[in-house]
Amino acid sequence: MNTNEKKSVRRGNIFALLPIVVFLVLFIGSGIITKNFYAMPTIVAFLIALAVAFVQNPKLKFNEKLKVCAKGIGDENVVTMCLIFLAAGAFSGAVTAAGGADSTVYLGLSLIPSQFAIVGIFLIACFVSISMGTSVGTIAALAPIAVGISEATGFAMALCLGSVVSGAMFGDNLSMISDTTIAAVRTQGCEMSDKFKMNFKIVLPAAIVAAVIYFVLTMGGAPEIELGEYNIWQVVPYILVLVGAIAGINVFIVLITGTVTSVIVGVATGAMAPGAIFSSIGNGVTGMYDITVISITVAAIAELVKAYGGIDAIINIIRRSAKSKKGAMVGIAALVSGVDLATANNTIAIVLSGPIAKEISDEFDIDPRRTASLLDIFGSVVQGLIPYGAQLLYAVTAVETVLGIKMSTYEVIPYVFYPMLMAVSALVFIFVFGGKEKK
Question: Residue 56 domain-assigned?
């Protein structure tokens, strides 16, 4: 690196990551001490972390810190995600009140053996997410069904939700219309189709092994259950949502269409009284308030961490540690993982890490397709496993929306097999094939 390049590298400040550390210590520590992860509400831990972020860096005035937070909260990805939460809540509330969740579960269990239900919903989630291009949208469509399957079959709720989150991260990483894929390809200057081919080779083994694990865990079958009655018309809203997702229609159009259809079907079949239309939608939207507020708070913290130099500190550490081509690829993986841990948003993590990853890949002569794949893969790995990520938070929120039961994201994490296996597959690919590539 020449002198001019050195001057252009921002120094960074490792202490800027303190709010993230505070959150993890408070949330995890309180759960371990009290043996109850509900003892510390997630939003309270994040608000304390936000307060810590505001106390830091006295050189920046309070009003200026508010502007920094507003910039993070107003980010296009954050606003879009929050609106998806509200649209998903409206659909969930309407379709549940219309009897769609129960009918869909009972219809599905009448068509396939119960021991294949978990594998089936994992594969469906893979298919929907790669078509829709959004993991949150996929979870919004399928999490209520997973809750119903758990209730009907007796399979652990965490296992059912874990299979949905796993499948959702499959498409988040691979889909041609996923914002993470677009960000990874644009920052590395390669073709999307080429990145997809290389990426697919790396993650396919992980998807196959994950499906096998879900099958093995449920191969004993669920206990004999008495299936409830179902109305095929009440299943129509879910079918429309799934078909729309597969067709690549905008997630908002898909969810709004599903909501309107749920209302029509619910009233027509007598499952929903006309006077309960708006209350059912309102209840669903209200159920999304917590996760929406958490997402806004996380965005504010992430932007302050970035402004204080926390992201630059992570980037510089990784940059200095890369000594060989394989080491550089591991460094790129660690880079995007670290930034995602700090921002809880894999798209933002890729956008921030992409330019530095490009410099590292140029310096060590790494194929741009491979760099783009690593950015997308490890961004999805971390995003699918962090307890404060939107994906897991929405999955457990679906339980509360449908059943009124609170559930911790830590209960689901052990069953989110695909991101774990994706990381293993990618690391094996780096160390076995890292030095063998044809441009």
Answer: no
**Cβ atoms 300, 73 nearer than 8 A:** yes
- Does 339 map to a domain? yes
Q: What span, in angstroms and rounded, lies between the C-alpha atoms of 388 and 412?
A: 12
| pLDDT tens-digit series, residues 391-405 | 898 899 888 777 777
Query: Hey, is 426 helix, strand or coil?
Result: helix
Distance CA 210, CA 212 (A): 5
Q: Are 244 and 257 in contact (CB under 8 A)?
A: yes
Nearest to 184 by CA among 10, 2, 369: 369
In a domain, 180, yes or no: yes
Looking at the 3D structure of the chain, how many domains does it have?
1
Residue 25 covered by a domain:
no
Distance CA 41, CA 212 (A): 35
pTM of the model: 0.71
In order, the DSSP letters of 41-85 are: -HHHHHHHHHHHHHHS-TTS-HHHHHHHHHHHHT-HHHHHHHHHH
Host domain of residue 261: 77-292+310-433
Segment (H or E) for 365: none
pLDDT of res. 2 = 42
| Nearest alpha-carbon partner for 324 in 357, 366, 355, 287 | 366
Own/partner contacts of 255-261, CB < 8 Å, gap of 24 or more, are 255/84, 255/87, 255/88, 255/90, 255/91, 255/137, 255/140, 255/141, 256/87, 256/90, 256/91, 258/91, 258/94, 258/95, 258/141, 259/87, 259/90, 259/91, 259/94, 259/95, 261/236, 261/237
| Calpha distance 353→343 (Å, rounded) | 12
Angstrom distances, CA of residue 284 to CA of 216, 236, 253, 406: 35, 19, 17, 15
Write the pLDDT tens digit of every residue in 313-325.
877 777 777 778 8
